[in-house]
Amino acid sequence: MxxxxxxxxxxxxxxxxxxxxxxxxxxxxxxxxxxxAFYPIIYSFYLSLTNYRFGTVDIRIVxxxxxxxxxxxxxxxxxxxxxxAFISVSVLIELFFGLGAALLLNxxxxxxxxxxxxxxxxxxxxxLAAGLMWKWIFEPEVGIANYVLTLFGxxxxxxxxxxxxxxxxxxxxxxxxxxxxxxxxxxAGLSAIPSTLYEAxxxxxxxxxxxxxxxxxxxxxxxxxxxxxxxxxxxxxxFDTVYILTHxxxxxxxxxxxFLIYRTGFKFSQLAYASALSYLMLIIxxxxxxxxxxxxxxxxxx
Amino acid sequence: MGQEPKKVGRRSFLNYAIAIIATGVIVxxxxxxxxxxxxxxxxxxxTTITKTVTTTVTxxxxxxxxxxxxxxxxxxxxxxxxxxxxxxxxxxRFKNITGVNVIVDEATWDAYHEKIVVSLSAKKGxxxxxxxxxxxxxxxxTNNWMSPLNQFMEKDTPPxxxxxxxxxxxxxxxxxxxxxxxxxxxxxxxGCYRTDLFEKAGLKPPKTWDEFVQVAQKLxxxxxxxxxxxxxKQSDHLTxxxxxxxxxxxxxxxxxxxxxxxxxxGLDALQFMLDLIYKYxxxxxxxxxxxxxxxxxxxxxxxxxxxxxxxxxxxLADDPTRSKxxxxxxxxxxxxxxxxxxxxxxxxxDSNKKEAAYQLIKYLGEKETQRELALKGEVAVxxxxxxxxxxxxxxxxxxxxxxxxxxxxxxxxxxxxxxVSAAAAEELSKALLQQKSPQQALNxxxxxxxxxxxx
Lengths: 302, 455
What we know:
A: mainly alpha; 13 helices; B: alpha+beta; three-stranded antiparallel beta sheet; 21 helices; globular
């Protein structure tokens, strides 16, 4: 048995070979991601520590100045406040309506296909086109929203002209666009729950609330987690709606983070400052997703 | 979850790989053919267009164009808007005369600044000529993105006759005794009024702001029609509207890199806007969601008695598919001082075909091409063209444009104009929505603008 300390056994090579395969196959995709995502992410971190604007010749490292600036000028805090308000309001409403609609759709027997096809329509419309459509709907003089209001005897509203209303107009547009996605995902989750559980619950004398609370919700938890994470991510980076409907106005009431960053970087050419703002945004979104992971995601999946 | 992962056999693994590669190849080939490669080249037949021009007006002979040998191709960037569309025949003619291929790239206003700035920052010589508005002059100057044209003008025979250009246009693109751009066209703020409503009420278009208020009050008949426009949306247009009023009331915006607008004139200008909204009640109630663009639609819907806009927004009102007021409106010079935003062709410093590029942009500034622009309704930059009775006879609106151009002011030339404009718009928006007193808004605006100019 001297061969123990001799050259490695053939099985070692075999396992080595087996292991490189997947990596090799992943390599092209990884390279692509590295070039298009990792490099820009790292480079923008470097940028965030400099004084770079478009055209700057002498780029200097200024340390954390840009980050300090973000917290000392009111714009960023205000944009963060608006974004967080937007996320909490829109995500909660979308989840509430989405869950309700999914439960309803799950209980009907006939025509589900048509209803499903209809409710997915908003998802299929390009965000930009949808935004332009909503801009027309919210037009005070010739828009449909005010026309409907006047039909019921209400006075015309300046949907995008009053700070508080403009915020809700953006929320409403987001609800219109995101709720179908919630419905589809939750419906899939609902259909995966074995009906035997409900039957057993009925035999045990459980009411509909009890079976919802103890069967439906626990089983839906993974689906709800996916939905919440995705909704929050989408709401966090809301841009197109704001860009088209309000451009951050009126009185900066709808200036969300992504729009502030866009303006800072591409309108004002302050790429360094915009990079710093993006990094802060990244940190905040990381915190939110960790919170989600801890609170909602089922333990056994971790 | 003790399930064993399913093993992928060698054969099916190979199949997968082949399938993936095949899909990649198919998609690659498909996109290669589906996506137009690089820039779009204009294919309008130049010769026929020359003919239509020469039949209607006396032809202007083209000056001799000398292209340095070895230059086969130039690349030019313009804005996706009517003035550029009307310049394309001229570019075609240049191609025919010189045999140099001109690759034309364009972008809409929303993306225009970004696209150009990113290209110029790259310093790869992507463009040999770029059309820019005066608003960006200082930004481009500070970043050393524009070549001075004097070096080419001195060597050139026959030299370009600059005295024929309106002073506001060449002044806008001169700095330190050097010219950086050849004026292309001017975007002057212009007024539009509803001839039918004015006739019925026996009114004439207003010449002063006092008259403007009186006329607006008489014609105000909500919700059918509103007397006056108000671009109250938080956008560049809001800043532009207020600055024009500031000039009208005798004020200045920035002097020697310092804000000088927090004066009685500044306050009067802002108060005037507030009065139109809250005292005279002549603006549409949705003012805070309109820029000049949205107001143009409203004017086309017949909801406004008067409207101020740029030549390109004004043009919409004659389009029967979009306008309900075709034939029921006319132009008038904006009361007070109007914004005269010159556009010019510049040569980026990173271009390596500057001499040929100069010949191209010089040709675009020649009388022949300028005349063609004017005959198609654009505000040309040459006096001899814009004030030519033949041109004014074919385009009566240009007579009014020429009048506006004589008193127009060049916009503030600041390196950080986009930032300054946004800061001003935010404060103005708060004042118009009565979140702040006008004086408070001006104080805050002054602080912000000074901070931006200093930083």
